[in-house]
Write a structure and sequence with these properties.
By secondary structure, the protein is an alpha+beta fold. The chain is built from 24 helices and 13 strands. The strands form two sheets. Strands 1, 2, 4, 5, 6, 8, 11 and 13 form an eight-stranded antiparallel sheet that branches. Strand 9 and strand 10 form a beta hairpin. Helix 6 packs antiparallel against helix 7 and helix 8 packs antiparallel against helix 9.
Length: 542
């Protein structure tokens, strides 16, 4: 999957790293549209819970603007009628959202451009708009919906009233976790954009939010159309072109995404966001050396959207492949910035707090019965694997994740993301019947069950799997006497016929096949033993 702007997790890892749009309106930050536009900063009236940084700044402005030069005790001991103060400061509502807050203070200090959200007509009904907006900001969502719906009924030509209605529906969708309500909000955002005389700032905010919420519902093509419209309306805004590039990446159209980022870099050659995404695209095209300076300079820019684990992942991976020893410097930096669990463990789809170690024993996993069954029946599993190795049947498919430096490596998959491949199991019916007794593997929606054949002269680059939610078992089936080995983290092991090796593939691992004949193993992924039954049911597939 392509990188997603401001999204943790995404398609940087191997072994099934694709993602999908969310099917529910969750508040998780992993979706571009999951972040609300409402302002945060503690209690607005300054009472209780102490003063946050933003609250302190706000009240500093309150005191300064009103000329109330008094001691901190006045604020601390509630000697000020804050509601009255806020009412007096209404005249300083610079952004048209109905009240005075930190954003307004920044505007007054010339730190932020004043957005124009009201046209001439909306300025005549500003008091009514402000009253409805205050309800929304105070979390009285249902009341705010009713208030804005009444304003839309009274003033159907008002862009600000309709935008307020869309925001309320957006908030309500999040509160109720309702996709139906969210679809209604998206429709209302579209209605705002279709009205006459919409201020350009309001139009931009409306379409950007519409695109984000479309992405959140998985409506990637609809979001792309919205982004295309934004770029047409505001062609000089490179940030919108950056968003458009992400829109193309989300539907797998790397070619058009590349064109967009080339346009951005022609105009603003130091745009860090465009650089990291352009570098990602080059790496996906296997232009490894070319990708490195874009990824490196993009991260170093510190621009919003560049401090993302996927870019550290791809930069380090590209450096490893060209023999650049700085790779681990970037992995270390990614770890220090909280993107990786450790320098070795660089998966991106993780559950916090799970036991993490490269190699495991059967007893440590708790899956001793599965291991015993695999080792007891290894010859049966081997024989069915050998029977389907006839290339005329086309069941073994080449590894397609660009993990090989060289050589020949193919796989024959029986289960993928917890789904049984019925056709494949016709080729290995006894093996599939055996496995169906063990839901910890057949139900592992973040893993696979497959045969893996590797021919002499093969080297698999150092890489990590996508998630810490699984462990990987390797059952040796046909193992040459020497020349085959696997490294996980800083320990290297070899396979034995009829024996199971267990490792956590979210740790960096690397494989060499320098024997004189093929190596055949059976790969069985299982849920991490510390995941709860609820987590196993609810975690999205990878």
């Amino acid at each position: 999957m392509a990188p997603r702007k401001n999204a943790k997790g995404g398609g940087g890892n191997s072994s099934g790293s694709s993602g999908s749009g969310s099917g529910s309106t969750s508040t998780g930050s992993s979706s571009p549209g999951a972040r609300r536009e409402t302002k945060h900063g503690g209690h607005k009236n300054g009472r209780k819970g102490g003063l946050s940084g933003s609250s302190f700044f706000t009240w500093f402005m309150v005191i300064a603007l009103l000329g109330v030069w008094t001691s901190v005790a006045v604020v601390w001991f509630d000697l000020v009628d804050y509601e009255e103060v806020l009412g007096k400061l209404g005249v300083y509502d610079a952004d048209g959202d109905g009240d005075f807050d930190v954003d307004d203070a920044k505007i007054l200090l010339a730190k932020k451009k004043k957005p124009k959200l009201l046209n001439k007509f909306d300025k005549t009904i500003k008091a009514e708009l402000d009253a409805a907006e205050k309800l929304r900001k105070r979390g009285k969502i249902e009341e705010a919906v009713n208030a804005f719906e009444e304003l839309v009924r009274k003033y159907p030509q008002s862009p600000r009233a309709r935008y307020g209605k869309a925001q309320c529906e957006d908030d309500l969708a999040e509160k109720r976790r309702s996709n139906e309500v969210l679809r209604r909000a998206i429709e209302t955002y579209q209605e705002v954009a279709s009205l006459p005389d919409v201020p350009s700032d309001l139009l931009k905010l409306t379409l950007k939010r519409q695109s984000e919420r479309q992405q959140f519902l998985g409506h990637m093509r609809g979001s792309l159309l919205t982004l295309q419209k934004l770029v047409q309306l505001f062609p000089s805004d490179t940030s919108l072109k950056n968003d458009l590039g992400v829109g193309y990446l989300l539907i797998g159209d790397n070619a058009n995404a590349k064109k967009v980022y080339e346009e951005v870099l022609n105009v603003t050659p130091n745009d860090g966001f465009a650089k990291v995404h352009y570098g990602f695209i080059l790496k996906a095209q296997n232009k490894i050396a070319e990708s490195i300076p874009y990824l490196k300079e993009g991260i170093e820019s510190g621009d919003p959207g560049t401090d993302d684990g996927r870019f550290y992942f791809h930069l380090g991976d590209a450096m490893q492949r060209v023999g650049n020893k700085e790779a681990y410097k970037w992995y270390e930096l990614g770890y220090k910035r909280g993107h990786f669990a450790s320098v070795w463990q660089r998966s991106l789809y993780n559950v916090n707090g799970l036991k993490a170690q490269p190699w495991w024993t059967p007893r440590e996993t708790g899956y001793t019965e599965l291991v015993k069954s695999l080792e007891r029946n290894w010859k049966l599993i081997r024989d069915e694997g050998l029977a389907v190795m006839d290339k005329a049947k086309g069941l073994f498919l080449p590894e397609d994740e660009n993990l090989r430096e060289k050589g020949d490596w193919s796989q024959f998959t029986l289960w993928q993301q917890g789904r049984k491949n019925e056709n494949a199991c016709k080729g290995a019916p006894k093996t599939c019947t055996l496995l169906e007794k063990f839901p910890e593997t057949t139900g592992c929606r973040r893993g696979q069950i497959k045969y893996s054949i590797m021919h002499p002269g093969t080297h698999v680059w150092p890489h990590t799997g996508p998630t810490n939610c699984r462990l990987r078992m390797h059952l040796g089936l046909v193992i040459p006497k020497s020349g085959c080995k696997i490294r996980c983290a800083n320990e290297t092991k070899t396979w034995e016929e009829g024996k199971v090796l267990i490792f956590d593939d979210s740790f960096e691992h690397e494989v060499w096949q320098d024997a004189s004949s093929f190596r055949l193993i059976f790969i069985v992924d299982v849920w991490h033993p510390e995941l709860t039954p609820q987590q196993r049911r609810s975690l999205p597939a990878i």
